[in-house]
Amino acid sequence: MANSYSLGSVFGIPVRVHVTLLIFLPLFALSFAPVAGLAGLFYGALGAVGLFGSVVLHEVGHSLVARAKGSRILEILLLPIGGMARLNQLPKRPADEIQTALAGPAVSIALGIAGWWFAPGVAVFNPILGYLLAELGRINFILAIFNLIPSFPMDGGRVFRAALVPRLGRLTATRIAATVGRGIAWVFGILAVLPLLHGGQIRFSLLLIAFFVHQAAGAEARAAEWEALEEVQRGQPSGLFDDLLRKWR
After folding, report:
1. Which of 35, 70, 164, 246 is the most core-located residue (most Cβ within 10 A)?
2. Contact 172, 241 (CB under 8 A)
3. Cβ within 8 Å of residue 166, ≥6 positions away
């Protein structure tokens, strides 16, 4: 992908970092710094690396399950707002899509448990490092919970869509999931600006997430419609796209 740099590979899956993350990385390091001075910057950098290492492993969880279901993993891309596993195609069977979507949060929960489990022992020898492990454990739990929100592009949105597919078809299910995603994005946006009513400041990080979720939800709906159109143009429309055919008729 343009404007990204290779970090190597994990389980044969290329891992790349977008240039925007490199710009924001010092800010993440500062936010993790537990103490002032050079020592704080050192531990802050460790925390930032641990955070995005956790994101990589989260995406690896998705990727390994998707690969087992027949998808080819193009790359894992790290962005300032998280990570993204790029596949040549998503698993088509709803059960496969659900398993692929849940694999990432499962890895995050495992990392959260590991962080909280090892933190007390590490703190005996290095209290600051123990604190960072506990903090990374907490963040991984939050990452798992956040990704289970039923909104694209989060994993919960894919689970929600896959659960609707058997009854409604992929296109209609995607449209419903995208609509819910846009609604959740508006909720995030309102929560981001709500502090202004009480003399506070806009939560810019939440506002950015709201914008990203809204755009991603729309992109998922458009991708499903293009997929349906390609099926029709090949003369092989499946039952999943009957609603699109009825619309054209």
Report:
1. 164
2. no
3. 94
Q: Are 124 and 217 found together in one domain?
A: no
For the chain, the domain total comes to 2
For 23, the token pair is 């710009």
Mean pLDDT of the chain: 82
At 24, which helix (H) or strand (E)?
Answer: helix 19-32
Residue appearing with tokens 């293009």: 226
- Whether residues 62 and 140 share a domain: the answer is yes
> Do 6 and 127 reside in the same domain of the chain?
yes
Beta bridge partners of 15: 8, 76
Is 60 exceeded by the pLDDT of residue 247? no
Instruction: Output helix, strand, coil percentages for the chain, rounded to the nearest 5.
Output: 75, 10, 15
Q: What is the pLDDT of residue 113?
A: 96
Q: Looking at the annotation, which residues are catalytic?
A: 59
Tokens of 163: 């659960």
Closest CA to 62 of 80, 78, 83, 45: 83
pTM for the whole thing? 0.80
